[in-house]
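Subject: sequence -> structure tokens, single chain

Hey, anyone have a minute? Need the predicted structure for the following. Not urgent.
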Amino acid sequence: MAPPRPALSRGGGDRYYGGRYHRGMKVELHSHTRHSRDCLLSYDGIIDVCRRRGIGALAVTDHNEIDGAFELQRRAPFPVIVGEEIFSAQGEIIGLFLKEFIPRDLSARETVARIKGQGGLVYVPHPFDSYRKGAVGRETLDEIRADVDLLEVLNARNIRHEDDDRALRYAYEHGLVMAAGSDAHSLGEFGNAYLDMEPFDGPRDFLAKARQGRIRGRHSTALVHLLSSYAKTHKRVAKRLGAVASA
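Reply:
Had a minute. Here:
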């Protein structure tokens, strides 16, 4: 039997599917700070936009970095989940509820083992994205599926909506907990995709309540990728200018 289709508006409207609907806490599960190489956001800017948009909890998932997540957790007046988007040898894997940094370029299996080893949750982002080299793809996802806690079935930065649909079907077929994230690199992206769920206490409680939660959101405009390109260029230029100044 085919999995149920999500309620979906291709015209920029909201997707909403998953468990029972109850308008609980808005949890943004995929976001970045200036510690990511393609992001310039300040802590204060992130805190302000989350408060204005009613985001009740935030996972900070910088690329191969964890310091920004700890700092935002210290500053924010709302719960912050310490995460890291780790570039494994086979694609990107997010660890949530982390205590320690995990290095990049390990195998997918070793990356998952290190997340689990510190009591974290394994979250696979944009698994089938057609344009990102960081997508793990079907073969790797099949390999690590038994240890995957959450599968991202709505990434607001995915250009091809069909890639999210494929992730959704995979989650239904294998009984995985579904997740959504804005993959926010700019302030305007926060809250574009999120999980609507009950308040939680720790990783195990989070996972149980996430399974009963509801995916909500929409895709961001493709222009947000230009902002990431600008951020990377800005940082490269600033680094070169700093090197020249110190020479």
